[in-house]
Amino acid sequence: MRVLVVEDEQLLADAVATGLRREAMAVDVVYDGAAALERIGVNDYDVVVLDRDLPLVHGDDVCRRIVELGMPTRVLMLTASGDVSDRVEGLELGADDYLPKPFAFSELTARVRALGRRTTVALPPVLERAGIKLDPNRREVFRDEVEIQLAPKEFAVLEVLMRSEGAVVSAEQLLEKAWDENTDPFTNVVRVTVMTLRRKLGEPPVIVTVPGSGYRI
To answer: Which parts of the sequence belong to the OmpR/PhoB-type domain (predicted)?
Structure first.
């Protein structure tokens, strides 16, 4: 899942981004509304965590722009105000969910994951394929009932492949969904991560390389 965090309190923004990355999400961060508009014009995001009171361009205007573009991106709006009228106004702008500050990080993560599921075809909470079970909420992976410990990027790549339900996923698509915009697109990080993931998942191999196209399970 790829997420954009838009928050002018830089310490909070960076803390949220770090926490979401530990949950195997690819996260970009900006600190004002103008930068947010620039990012959504270039990258495809599953979820935007959007502070309402932003400098340069207000969060309301960023939300309106996402709606106007007809993007499948879901918006979780943040605000220091917990008034019901503010929450209703934010939702009427087109936000998909609303979370007042201060918030528990566990709740923010749960809401981001729930919104991320709404950007794709509905799938069961626990993904199962080729003897692999992956639980995105618990961050658990099992093969034939044996738990497998994965690093965040390995988990993210496996989740993307599992969600594709047998379709081929290109290295470029994996890079877009599992890494942030600071990753060198010419790096071999995808190939190395897939190799490590294959080794951890064990025999017989479940990740198939499709020459010239990508990978599938």
So the answer is: 124-217
pTM, to two decimals: 0.67
Alpha helices (runs of H) in the chain, residue ranges in sequence order = 10-22, 33-40, 59-68, 84-92, 105-117, 152-163, 171-178, 189-201
C-beta atoms surrounding 64 within 10 Å: 13
Distance between CA 151 and CA 194 in Å, rounded? 12
Pull the structure tokens for residue 133.
Answer: 């079970």
Tokens of 5: 């965090």
Residues 33/55, Cβ–Cβ less than 8 Å: yes
CA distance 72 to 110: 19
**Residue (of 99, 49, 87, 40) closest to 67 by Cα position:** 40
Give the Cβ contact number of residue 102 at 10 Å: 8
